[in-house]
């Protein structure tokens, strides 16, 4: 899989927005806004690679990318919270 430089910039921008949104959805993560944004960028990267492999398609355009990345970031935040609290939510 090849991602262009513009694609990486879009993933990073969408990750910023998705991380902020995921931080609002998943309360109590304790990462702060910067940590949530970094997790959002990681969630956007995970979602951009994982969703096409699973055949999940939410549409096209920037809004669909933000929703997809927010879902990836929320999943990532929940996993990180599960690991940090050693199995307790």
Number of helices, where a helix is a run of at least 4 consecutive DSSP H or I residues: 3
Q: What helical percentage do the residues reach?
A: over 70%
Cα-to-Cα separation, first versus last residue: 36 Å
For the sheet with most strands, the description reads: none
Average pLDDT, all residues: 77
Radius of gyration over C-alpha positions, nearest whole angstrom = 13 Å
Measured by DSSP, the beta-strand proportion falls in under 5%
Q: Low-confidence segments, ≥5 residues, pLDDT <50?
A: none
**Class by alpha and beta content:** mainly alpha
Beta strands, count: 0
How would you name the oligomeric state of the polypeptide chains in this document?
Answer: single chain
Principal-axis shape equals globular
Order of helices and strands: HHH
Question: What report would you give on this structure?
Answer:
The chain has a domain at 16-24 and 32-84. Helices cover 75% and strands 0% of the residues. The chain has helices at 5-25, 32-54, 62-84. It is globular and about 35 Å long. The N and C termini lie far apart (36 Å).
Q: Which characteristics define this entry?
A:
globular, mainly alpha, 89 residues, single chain
